[in-house]
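Problem 3 from the worked examples.
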Amino acid sequence: MNFFKNSNLAQAWLVLLLATVFGTALAGIQVKLSPVIEANKTRETMEKIPDLVLDTSMATQTATQDLIIQSRVIEIEKNGITKFYPVYDVQQKNGSLAGHVAKARGQGYADKIEVLIGLDAGGNTITGLFILDQKETPGLGNKIVEKTWRDQFINKLSDTPLIVVKSKTGQPNEIDGISGATISSRSVTGIVNTTIADIRPRLLPIPKTEETE
């Protein structure tokens, strides 16, 4: 025991050993939980689609099963980098196109932020925003999940990049930043801007589904 107390080298090796053991254990847990986490995200995505493409009054009356949802992946290559955007094209049972929901992710202040972006049928207007996953600072950056902040994006035109400001001046493309969390605010806004710029030209025409007898 005295050897460990008096030997910095022994203590350093002990710390390294414990870090390796705990790191390996955490990695194993993460591998086991990953499929569960992704399944939960998929379920939550499907549940949020009506809210993201329909107005509140319609969404409360429209269950996911009342919509025809076709998923696809839009592939974008820019500057030698290929990005993949999962997109859900949403139709009502009468055949009219309700809108689209795109899933995207980008770097936040603390970790990756994953979002769902609702767009109208023509991809011209943002109809909703939902934060699917985030690990931002509690009490500051994690306020991006709050409805009052996210609702700023609704009805913003998609042909003009959004900007984060400390105090609005009346410009239609302004988003109020969260006090003390400018990076998180800009990260979400940047993800929205980049995603829309990438996928908007490819939203229409929608690939036809194969008819089954």
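Problem 4, a separate protein:
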Amino acid sequence: MRAVFFDFDGLILDTETPEVETWQEVFREHGAEFPDAYWINALGRGADQITQTPAGLLAELLGQPLDEEAIHRAARARVLGKIDASETRPGIRRLLEELSAAQIPLAVVSSSKHSWVDGYLAKLGLAHHFRFTVCADDVERAKPFPDLYLAAMSKMGVTPDDSLALEDSPNGSHAAVAAGMTVFAIPNPVTSRLDISHAHWLITDLTQVSLAEMQAQFTSVRRA
């Protein structure tokens, strides 16, 4: 295991649960239900691959025009408030410190843009752990396509056989698998409801898994 690549949204910081919960609240405030199919499809994807906005979907379900811009603005403020009050996911800081101490190079690979990812890494005091970030700004196609991971491995100078991807969502895991990498899934409260069985190892509680166990599992997967 010569390099580890971290997803950001939902893995390092759970930005996904606040997003889904907020839109569920907004839809219910308008007498509708936020369809599971919408957020399941959206989680882990690049924004350019999502053709319909949640407010647009709400207007369609209600069969009436809405001030979609105002709805999105209010929902966004609510989401950001929840995210800004959050800490990194359990076990993430310890894992980053252990990987850094072991001198294993790290990078973030995200379908979000640099302004979002880099800003939060700095705010959380985690940026120093990563050699670089590869984000949606850097490739034509974000996850579930493999482009982000292929670009990240090329920049790091490693091969898929050397590389571990840590993901929380099906779309992200599909991207890493398509890039030929070993993938460990660490789902959050939202993505734990989804099928991530294509990942090579499912970690339900990172605080209970040691770096030595992860390295052993990685070696086992590559030998199989």
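Solution to problem 4. The beta strands are 3-6, 106-109, 132-134, 163-167, 182-185, 201-202. The chain has a mean pLDDT of 94.
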